[in-house]
Amino acid sequence: HVQLVESGGGSMPAGGSLRLSCTASASLSLVCMGWFRQAPGKEREGISAIYFGGGPGDLRYADSVRGRFTISQDFDKKMMFLEMNSLKPEDTGMYYCAAEGRSRVGVSPLLSARYEYWGQGTQVTVS
To answer: Per-residue pLDDT tens for 62-86?
Structure first.
């Protein structure tokens, strides 16, 4: 049974920082994982992605978060992180982690179609 669990969300004033974590179940072979967010009334947006075991070139960021958010991994613990700095009110939303199942290398890692497994989400509110 594949499971993804996010944690670390919360409420912060603008300019603050939060660190999100995503833990994958042991049964999941990690190749590519991503962070998505969805604000009320808006479509889900891919904001960052990482290829496990890769180098700095294997990171992806949406323009909306580049320079403020940093994605990282702990391969041995099957965890992914998102360090979010200089938070803005427009960063408010439900944040989801996602993991690739079957290989879909032709699909951008910032698109939801790339991923088969999803967490339940963690809420981030920036005021």
So the answer is: 999 999 999 999 888 999 999 999 9
